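Q: Structure tokens for this one, please.
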Amino acid sequence: MAKQSSQERISEKLHIGNGTKTHKKNIVIFICILAVIIIFGIIGLLLFFKLDTTEKRNVVVTPENVEETLEQMKEKTQAGQYEVTMNTTWEFEKGDSASTNAYVENSTSNANDVYFDVIRNDTGEAILKSPIIPVGSHLENITLDKPLDAGTHACMLTYHLLDSSGNPVSKLNINLKIHVAD
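A: Here is the predicted structure, written as tokens:
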């Protein structure tokens, strides 16, 4: 009987020890499963909401994409955006005379006053710095600040959009050809 009592006590101790080990294993397994669920949940949320980290940039307008760009801008002109109304080839009889066709308008559909600079592509020299053009106003009979020699000159016209305090908020670049006849 004493032998049986001693075996029962050993059995109880082993049973208690196994129960504790099983309980600890269950907790570890539960924590691992919970961690995996949390990780997959985070990955799923990131994929679902896929954050857009691409940098937004202005588009250089060329004669080939001017119509498409104008249409896109008309559809979504907001503060900080600009609807372009101008011609992209300016004609001058002489390098220091007023243009026969240059026209730049700040459309009434725009929200910002603007000014623009015309820079020669070959030298980087500014050949025209416009005054501020309020919404609904335009410039015509434009004369260059620095005369050009006869020929066709590739230039970049950069619009600077202004906030209500007159500070630049964004800009838009457009290719421009200037042709001087004489």
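A few notes: The two ends are 128 Å apart (CA to CA). Residues 82 and 110 are 6 Å apart (CA to CA).
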